[in-house]
Amino acid sequence: MNLKDHIREVPDFPKPGILFYDLSTLLAHPAAWKYCVAQLTEIVAPMEPDLLFGIESRGFLVSAPLALQLGCGFSMIRKKGKLPGDTIELSYDLEYGTDTIAIQAGAIKPGQKVVILDDLLATGGTMAASVDLVEKCGGIVVACACIIELTFLKGRDRLQKPVHTLIAYDS
User: Fold this and answer.
1) Which pLDDT does position 39 carry in this prediction?
2) Are 148 and 165 contacting, i.e. CB atoms less than 8 angstroms apart?
């Protein structure tokens, strides 16, 4: 199955000049979504992760069903102030400014093997910060995975971990 056939391209969203790759059409097609999760399962299962982390918010859609399929834990990486209880935060640089991500304190036991997932890899900034945050908490990041990669933005070059994607867009 060609997953690209199930990704809707939305021009000029969220601002002019951006071509947005919309996963909602993939999620709405049961056979395509099942195939997508099966493909990610084949990639991630041999890594035997203890825990999957999904990056806010579409990364939750990817990692939660995958964790269920693999029989491992799932946790969230969110923007500052979005998680209840004590959190561990990390600030990182954006093209124009900074952002802060957080995980719940105690979400990772030192030495746990972790795969970090998101829907799309673009510049790699948030994924790289997520790797740093998980490792700061004692997790061992064994890989990163996404459904879509915008290869022309070279996001994987910022990551010192194996990166797995199902769909690549070259421009």
Assistant:
1) 98
2) yes
Which residues are annotated as catalytic?
A: 58, 95
Q: E strands within the chain?
A: 8-11, 19-22, 51-55, 73-79, 87-94, 97-104, 113-121, 140-150, 163-169
Chunked in runs of 10, what are the mean pLDDT values of the chain (171 residues)? 97 95 97 98 98 97 97 98 98 89 97 98 97 98 98 96 98 81
- Three-state secondary structure call for residue 35: helix
Domains, the chain? 47-169 (3.40.50.2020)
Q: How far is Cα of residue 141 from the mean position of the Cα atoms in its chain?
A: 13
Tokens 């998980």 correspond to 134
Structure tokens at 154: 């070279």
Rounded alpha-carbon distances, angstroms, from residue 160 to 91, 98, 105, 142: 19, 21, 24, 10
